[in-house]
Amino acid sequence: MAVYEYEHETESCNLGKVFLVEHSIKDEAMTRCPECGGAVRRLISRAFVSTPKTNADLKNMGFTKLVRRDQGVYENVTATGTEHRYMEAGKPETMPDLKRKIGD
Q1: 95: domain range?
Q2: Does any domain span residue 91?
Q3: Residue 9, Cβ neighbours under 10 Å: how many?
Q4: Is the pLDDT of residue 80 over 90?
Q5: 48: CB partners within 8 A, 6+ apart
Q6: 96 domain residue, yes or no
Q7: pLDDT tens readout for residues 86-100
Q8: Residues 28-56 pLDDT 10s
Q9: How far is CA 14 from CA 34, 81, 86, in A?
Q10: Same domain for 97 and 71
Q11: Which of 3, 50, 76, 89, CA to CA, is 20 to 30 A from 19?
């Protein structure tokens, strides 16, 4: 679920001039206030993005980070379990196990 900001086009109600609504990203934008039925418009808001700071943060979030070490050789600094620490060009068995990390 996403959180959206809506603004009354005329007078505000108990929700205020600007209010928040949580609904699916697939849902159409609201045109009427759920409280008073007045006309509203969805505002464009700043998105909050939490950026991982360390390789450990990336690893804990399920990301894979490859760092180039040599021609065709990359180090998987977020390797987990049975993943190879180094990935080499032309050797598919050294690739990170992305199917295990990526889900619906």
Answers
A1: 55-101
A2: yes
A3: 11
A4: no
A5: none
A6: yes
A7: 999 899 888 887 777
A8: 999 999 999 999 999 987 777 778 889 99
A9: 11, 53, 59
A10: yes
A11: 50
How far apart are the two ends of the chain, measured CA to CA in Å?
15
| 48: in domain | no
Tell me how far CA of residue 95 lies from CA of 44, 64, 75, 86, in angstroms.
40, 11, 10, 8
B/e letters for 18-36, b = 16+ CB within 10 Å, e = fewer, are ebebeeeeeeeeeeebeee
- CA dist 25 → 7, 51, 52, 101, 102 (Å): 18, 22, 24, 24, 21
Percentage of the chain beyond pLDDT 70 is 95
Number of domains into which the chain is organized: 2
Q: Does pTM top 0.90 for this prediction?
A: no
Asked whether the predicted pLDDT for residue 27 surpasses 60, the reply is yes
Residue 35 belongs to some domain of the structure:
yes
